[in-house]
Amino acid sequence: MKTLKDLCIMSLADCLQLLSKFGTSLPTHLKESVLTYIVDHDMLVKEKLPAVTYHLFHSTLTCIKLYYCSQVNDNFLSNLALSGCKLTTVTICGCHSVTNRGLSNLLQSQTFIETLKLKQMTCLSDKTLKCVQSNRLTKVKLDACSQLVDAGVIALVENNATIRHISLSNCSNITDASVIKIASCLGNSLISLNVDNIKYLSDDSFIALANHCSNIEDLRAMGGNGVSAIGLKAINDNCVKLKILDISYCYHLLRAPNSTPVLNSVSESITFLNLTAIQIDSDSLTSCCIRLKNLSRLRLCGCSGVCEESITEITKSIGDNLTEIDMTACPNIKEGCLSAIAKYCPILESLRIGLCSQIVGRSLLPLFNDKERAKLIRILHLTNCSAFDTEVLITAVTNCINLSALLISGLSWVNDAFMCTLSMNCPKLSALYLKGCKNVSDNGVCDVVFRCALLRDVVLSGIHCLTDKSVFALANNSHQLESLYVTACSKITPAALRYLQDCCLQSIFIEHKVPNADPKQLIAKNLDTGEFCRMDLQSYDT
Q1: Predicted pLDDT of residue 15
Q2: Could you give the CA distance from residue 197 to residue 352 in angstroms, rounded to a whole number?
Q3: Which of 60, 373, 396, 420 is 20 to 30 A from 498 in CA distance terms?
């Protein structure tokens, strides 16, 4: 339900151009909230833009958040800079009308920035990053900036030695040169580095980090195909404070002969380890994990070494600390693996076993029947576990009262009765994935929507019977919604989805790919029943 504050922000945003001189009396945090709402809902139209500049652009602004708005352009950012604002947090994501000129005009005057996030900004180049100079800058995220090259990153770290956290994931043109410069400039001040999916990453980057950044605690290098056991060994030997290590999809890591033992020297301070898609045998996997007494989160998606023997040994040794286990798409997973988890993991919060089509799940009943342990469960990922037992899942949603994410796409038996049970027992649900659950109707979706007010991510693709009734329920109840997938839901209309976007408090991503709709389609509300239905299909006696 929307709060009074939310309603006031919406009202101010709607009638901003009709107000006179109210901006001077509006507190800064409310100016920022109104500006964010206007951007999120694409309200920067020609008639409103002067009022936005006059009322909301002020020297007291400290935080801007601009998400996926094509109306934000260079002039908008230049006018913001002219207001004399002293920003501490700058977040600009996916605003593709912005060029380097607008970013440079804004950032070159900001010397108090502490957090800088420029995500999916295809225009971002070294020219913009050379303008950034702040002795307070500690956190930088430049994810998915496809045009970003080494020169920009090098200039950024040379001019801002206070950076502690930096993320460059999916920046396809970045090479070892950037990481080496980050290591040498930031040294022991560097706490976290994300270089996921940088295809040119090699051992040189890991060796530089090992030589200069002994205090690093979080290193994510998913898809670093150039990294081998040599680079990982350097990290293991020198970065003894490392807590988070993601080397998923680093296919070359264990290809060299006698390289497997490098995993046995991973720092014992590790609390999160991601070995997704690393093809390691069960004995090596076991010996690697049982050493890590501080490990709480373990991801082993697609690992061939996951089997009943290895999981039993791992959980028996360190299960008391494990809060998350991810065995998605593991080809050798059996009921014995689940039995070991149920027996040896007393504080488990997240269990992911999606894409394991042979799993029945009855071995998990001791876990779900224990109400004290069940209430700790936050995430259940069972996507395409087509053999999963109905009774087990019903028991899970009945007793896991703090469940926040349920991923059950592809479970064809899920129906409205199950949705009713889910809604009555899991009020904290925020993510629900039901792709292809064709026995769910509008009534089932509405049951969950009415009782689970915290929904943020909903996947309903492939449920052909759904209509605008489900969308209107979301619009009137799930105001924090961030994403909705309704591909192949041909009875849902674009008009209803636009209404949903207007009702949500923030920018929402919607995927709705369907065949061409009937041009004569007419959806209307039945005033007797309150339901929305296809009026063009109704017949009336005259």
Answers
A1: 87
A2: 23
A3: 420
